[in-house]
Design a protein that fits this description.
Number of helices: 22
Shape: globular
Distance between the termini: 61 Å
Strand content: 5-15%
Radius of gyration: 29 Å
Helix content: 55-70%
């Protein structure tokens, strides 16, 4: 059941329509017929004193916390938003107003069942940081300095109303503005809703932080604050307080005697580890979320937005990035195809030709001189033109890398993301070729083949039942059917033979691992015999296939 009243939604609707119109986007109101519904005149004239990207930013800021968050998330989507808008959306400022201490203490009491003064020996009533959905206070807990992040009152209710309106407007845009259909506005809103739900749940952020701490516990150059779970809930997050300098305050870093080159190297190594080793990375590394401590360590804060990359996806991403930096169009196309980005209706030939032409401009350029930000923008601009969609986690990764390059260059003029990333791309490829990974792939393939064989009788039975019931009509014209039957018979024999060989290899491997006797030259005899027999069978099968020219 919705917590908001219909009247709340209607009042908020009118407010949104007025602001959208105020900033010169009345065409959207007009085409979606919202102006008629709410009887609000549409302003035809744009505000000529401001560019369109600036007007979008100001509009989102005036619309409030939910829309500010939408803009911030869209700033991480170069596949959807052109570069001039991304640059402007990166300047979005969270509403910095803060709630009175009495209201914040009420949230704390309702969440923990305890009063602030009964938990903390000291608590600063004026927050030292205030964002759109929360504010952060310094406090003392069990003799330690802590930062207490508390969600602002009423935010969840406002978000719920705004999300309902966003879905309405996205649906109207898809219905009435055909040129916007390719951007799938409803899907964008759905992705945004999931991201916002995660940000509103501080317990998820606490688990993210704890995972980062474990990943970096053996890295002396990286600091991740400790979570005090006993004083953390869904709307309250208590962390170890870390004092430091924001990474973009170059003058302060120099006055503190910080080695900026060292910090840039720590930052690069830490993100490469997050992306290509852990598969779990901080996806919002703007300067406010990266602090440098007095002992020259890099501290990560605010883990509301994180990216996750599976092992398989890491290989695809490594192939794509390697293809882009080395100008190898085949690697690029193969990786995009693996990601499912190239659909049946995609003009793959046209895209390939334009992509190849673009990469040719970078081919002979020294890798350290490649401007990753520019390369990324050109690639995504091309993808937008050809309506090529890639996983949102990949766009988060790309935006993270682009931000990392900007920060790295501000710290160290000789910083090169392209050079730094290359060894990790090679490492991912090498790891994939290790024997244990190949063996895992083989086991996975064998399992899939075994499942197909097991399910074949029931699938065939279902298929025949559908034919009998008239759901499927098949007309046969006999032309060389005997040869077809003979071919199918040979293929099924080879498949069965392959499964036997696979079973021999797997069982032999298990015997070798178990170390069961008797032994030949120090190795389990049954395992050795199994490998020899499977090798003979495998060679025989290959010879038979080659002899009949069926490879």
């Amino acid at each position: 059941m919705n917590r908001y009243r219909l009247t709340d939604k209607l009042i908020r609707y009118r407010h949104i329509v007025r602001i959208v119109t105020k900033y010169g986007f009345g065409i959207i109101v007009e085409k979606t017929h919202l102006g008629k519904i709410f009887r609000i005149p549409v302003r035809k004239k744009k505000r000529e004193d401001l560019s369109a990207p600036v007007r979008v930013r100001k509009m989102l800021e005036e619309l409030g916390p939910t829309f500010v968050k939408l803009g911030q998330i869209l700033s991480t989507r170069p596949d959807l938003v052109p570069l001039p808008y991304i640059k402007e959306l990166e300047n979005l400022q969270d509403n910095t107003y803060s709630f009175p201490f009495e209201m914040i203490s009420g949230v704390f009491l309702s969440e923990t069942g305890k009063r602030i003064e009964d938990v903390f020996s000291d608590f600063e009533e004026i927050p030292f940081a205030s964002a759109s959905i929360s504010q952060v206070h310094k406090a003392a807990y069990r003799g330690k300095k802590v930062a207490v992040k508390i969600q602002k009152p009423g935010i969840e209710d406002l978000v719920q109303v705004d999300m309902a309106i966003m879905y309405d407007i996205a649906g109207l845009i898809e219905k009435f503005i055909k040129e916007a259909e390719i951007y799938r506005p409803v899907n964008i809103v759905r992705e945004f809703e999931k991201a916002l739900e995660r940000e509103l749940d501080f317990s998820l952020e606490a688990r993210n932080i704890e995972r980062f701490r474990k990943n970096f516990e053996s890295e002396p150059g990286v600091l991740v604050p400790m979570v005090y779970f006993s004083v953390s809930t869904r709307r309250v997050l208590t962390l170890e307080f870390v004092g430091g300098i924001k990474i973009n305050r170059i003058d302060e870093l120099d006055r503190a005697g910080i080695d900026r080159k060292k910090i840039s190297e720590i930052g690069l190594a830490s993100f490469m580890k997050q992306i290509f080793v852990d598969g779990f990375f901080h996806a919002d590394p703007h300067p406010a979320n990266l602090l440098v401590t007095s002992d020259c360590r890099l501290c990560f804060i605010d883990f509301g937005i994180v990216g996750r990359i599976s092992e398989e996806r890491r290989l695809e991403i490594a192939g794509l990035l390697r293809g882009l930096t080395e100008g190898n169009i085949s690697d690029v196309m193969e990786s995009l195809e693996s990601m499912g980005a190239l659909k049946e209706d995609t003009d793959s030939k046209g895209f390939r030709e334009e992509m190849e032409e673009m990469l040719d401009r970078y081919k002979d350029m020294p890798i350290k001189d490649i401007d990753v930000n520019r390369l990324i923008e050109e690639v995504f601009s091309l993808m937008r033109r050809y309506h090529i969609w890639i996983p949102s986690n990949f766009t988060l990764l790309v935006k993270t890398l682009a931000t990392l390059e900007g920060i790295g260059l501000s710290l160290n003029p000789d910083f090169s993301l392209s050079s730094g990333i290359k060894p990790y791309l090679a490492r991912v490829m090498f790891e994939r070729m290790k024997i244990n990974n190949l063996f895992k792939d083989f086991l996975s393939l064998s399992s899939a083949m075994s499942r197909i064989v097991r399910e074949f009788p029931s699938s065939l039975d279902s298929f025949l039942k559908m034919i009998r019931k008239g759901y499927i009509n098949i007309a046969f014209e006999h032309k060389g059917l005997h040869d077809l039957i003979s071919t199918i018979d040979k293929a099924s024999n080879r498949l069965s033979f392959s499964l036997i060989i696979a079973a021999l290899i797997i069982s032999s491997a298990l015997i070798m691992v178990s170390g069961a006797g008797p032994f030949i030259l120090g190795y389990p005899a049954l395992g050795v015999v199994g490998f020899v027999v499977s090798a003979i069978f495998g060679i025989g099968l290959i010879i038979d296939i080659v002899r009949h020219r069926n490879m």
